[in-house]
Amino acid sequence: QSTWGLSSHPAMMRLRLKCMFSLAWLALVLVAVASSAEDPEVSSSPSDAGVADAASAASAASRRDELVDAAVALMSEGAFEQAQALLLDGVAEIGESSRLLFLLGDIALREGRTDDALAFAERAIAADADNLNAYLLLSHASPPTWRKANVLTRYLDATRGARDDAITRSRTFASYDLATTLFALGNYSEARRAFDVIARRTHPNMLVARWSAALAALALGDSSSAVADLMTILDADPTHGAAQSLLYALAPETAPKLKVAPLKSPVQNNYAGFRLPSADWQIERLEYAALAPRFWTDFVLTRTPVVIRKGVLAELGWRIESWTPQHIRERVANVTVLAQQALATPGRFGVADVMRSLGLHDVLAMFEDAAAEGTAAAPLYVNVQQRSAAKWPPMLVPLAAEMPLPTALVPEDRITQINAWIGVAPETGPGVHSSLHVDMTDNLYFLARGRKRFVIASPADLERLALIGRVQSVNRAGVVSFDRRLSAQQTPPVVHFAHVHDPRVANATRFEGIEQAVFAEIELDAGEALYLPASWAHHVTTHGNSLAVNLWWQPPTDDELADPASLPAPVSSRPEL
Fold it and tell me: Which of 261, 377, 409, 535 has the greatest number of C-beta atoms within 10 Å?
C-alpha cells in the first residue's frame, strides 16, 4: 500500500529530486576531487606550522590525491567495500581529510547508511568548512530539519554566480530541496515564495513547482490562490491529471471545463496472470502452514492475490502485534519522520497532502490520544521513510530483530524495501483513503492493528484505469511500462497513480474506459497479511489507528515465468529464525 497520492506534492518532488541527485552525484564527486585550487588541508596555517613543514604537507596532499583517485576508480566499478577500506586506512594514515571523509559519506549514503553518511559529512565540514560538497552530502542524507535548511541556504549562497555546469545543476536540486524542507517544517509562506521563484525561473520544471506552490497556498488556507495556480498548470497542460483531480475537489463547478486525455493508441498488454472474473470474486484465505508450500506455484507464478489468516505473524516469529507506542519509544530514538496530512479533503490522502516533519515520538503521542478519545483531530499517515537505497528505514532498524525476514516465502535477495505504516485516524466515519494506484513490485502487507478495505483491479485492466502517464506495455507478470518520450510538461511526477481518487465515485466515469474495468473488494483485519502482485491497482480505506509493515520485492520476470525451475523454491513451510 502507498498513499503518496496523485500529485507531485513536495514529498513526491523530494523523492524525484533524490533520483535526480543520484544521477548527478558522481559528477559532484568529480567536482570535489578536482576542486583543490584552494585546499585548506594542505595550506599552511598557524595551527599546522608547529607540527608539519611544507614538505610533509605536500607529501600528505600527494598521498591524499592518490587515495582519492584510487577510491573514485573503485567506486565507479561498484567496489564500494574496497573503496571504503582504502579510505578508512587513508584517514588513519594522514588524518581527518575532508575529501576522504566526503567520499566515505558518499559510500555510506549509496549503501543506505544514512546515519553514517551524516556523521562523515559533519566530520568533513569540521575538517574544511568550505567543502561545499560535504554540505550537499549532509543535506541529501538528512530528513527535513532546520539544520538541513541552514545547510542548503549556505550552499546556495556560496555557489551564487557559479558558472560550472555541475554546480548549476546541483543548485537547481538544492533550491527544490530547500523549498520542500521549508514546506515539511511548516514554513508554508516561505516555501510558497520559493516554489514561485522556481516556477518563474526554470521553465522545464514550472509545472512541478507551480503544483507545489498550490499545495503551500492550501496549507495557508488560501484556496483562491491554489485554484489560480491549478488553472495556470492546466493552461500549460490541459491533461495534467493531478491538477485536474485537485481542482475538481476544490471547485467542482470547473469540472466540465477539464480535458481528459483519451486513449490514443492500443496498449500492448501481455499480462498472463489471474484476472478478476467479476466484482463478486472472493479472495482465498489460507493458514500460513497451508500457504507456504504453495505460495510460489499457486499465487506468485499465477499472479493471484491471497490473504494469510491470523496467526501468520506468530508463525513468522514477528512480534509487531505487541508493538505499543511505549514499546517503540523505548527502542527507537525520536527520529524525524514525514507524516502525511490531507488538506482540501480531510481523510482523503492522494488528492492534496501536507507532509509534516515530526518527531516519531510526537506521532506516537497522537496515536495514543486518538485511541483514548476514539477520534483524531487531524488524520495523519506515516509511510515510506527511506532516504536512500536502504532496505530498512531508520525508524525500523532498531526493531528489525522483532520481525525476521520471511525467507521461506520470499528470498532475501529479492526484497527491495521494508516499510512501516502508522495511521492516526478516527474509529468511526468514512475512514481515511489512499488514492487508486499501482505498485511496481510485489507486496506482502502485514497488518498488526486497524482495519482496511482494499478495492483492487488486475493488470488486465491497466489501460482502463486512467493512470497518470501513458501506459505503453504490460509484461506477462503484469509490470507496467510507461512511455518516457513525453515532454517534461507532460511527464507525470508519480507515474503509478491514477487520475481518479476512488473508482467507485461518480466522477470516475469522466475517464474513458474505467467503467469497463472489474473491481473487487478485500477486507483485511489485524493479524492478517495480504499478498498483492505487482501492478494490481488498489484503493485503500483505513478505519481507526493502524500499524502495518510491508515488504516490496522483485516480481518474477517473463523469463522466470517461462522457466519456473529457475526460481528458488521455499526451503520449508517455516522460516529459519
Answer: 535
pLDDT higher than threshold 60 for residue 23: no
Amino acid 4 reads W
H-assigned helices in 111-187 = 114-127, 132-141, 146-158, 165-184
CA dihedral 472, 387, 147, 40 (to 10 degrees): -100
Question: What region, left, alpha or beta, does residue 403 occupy, with left being phi > 0 and alpha being psi -120 to 50 degrees?
Answer: beta
HSE-up of residue 29 (Cα within 13 Å, Cβ side) = 25
Q: How far apart are CA 544 and CA 85, in angstroms?
A: 49
**How far apart, in Å, are the Cα atoms of 473 and each of 263, 278, 442, 458, 518?**
13, 24, 18, 14, 19
Q: Which of 303, 263, 254, 221 is nearest to 555 (CA)?
A: 303
- At residue 38, the pLDDT reads 43
Alpha-helix residue ranges (DSSP H) falling in 310-465: 312-315, 325-331, 360-373
Site of grid cell 528489525 = 400
Whole-number Å distance between alpha carbons of 287 and 353: 37
- What grid cell was written down for 546? 493502524
Helix or strand run (H / E) with residue 231: helix 223-236
pTM above 0.90, yes or no: no
- Cβ distance 458 to 572 under 8 Å? no
CA 391, 393, 396 angle in degrees (round to 5)?
110
- Helix, strand, coil % over all residues of the chain, rounded to 5: 45, 15, 35
How does pLDDT run across 236-246, given as a tens digit for each residue?
Answer: 777 676 677 67
pLDDT digit string, tens, across residues 472-516:
789 999 988 876 544 333 333 333 667 677 777 645 556 667 778
Q: In this predicted structure, what is the pLDDT of residue 388?
A: 54
Distances from the Cα of 212 to the Cα of 3, 343, 353, angstroms: 17, 13, 10
Q: Which of 250-259, 273-282, 522-531 has the lowest mean pLDDT?
A: 250-259
- For residues 313 and 345, the answer to whether their CB atoms sit within 8 Å is no
- pLDDT of 358-406, one tens digit each? 788 888 888 888 777 665 555 677 776 655 556 888 788 889 999 999 9
Q: Are 395 and 420 in contact (CB under 8 A)?
A: yes
Contact 344, 351 (CB under 8 A): yes
Three cell numbers written together for 565:
525451475
Distance CA 549, CA 530 (A): 11
| Spatial separation of the C-alpha atoms in residues 128 and 96, rounded to whole Å | 9
Three-state SS for 530? strand
**Grid coordinates belonging to 507:** 466522477
Evaluated on CA atoms 123, 129, 132, 135, the torsion sign reads: positive
Between CA 59 and CA 414 the distance in angstroms is 47
The angle subtended at Cα 303 by Cα 300 and Cα 306, nearest 5°, is: 75
Q: Are 399 and 332 spatial neighbours (Cβ–Cβ below 8 Å)?
A: yes
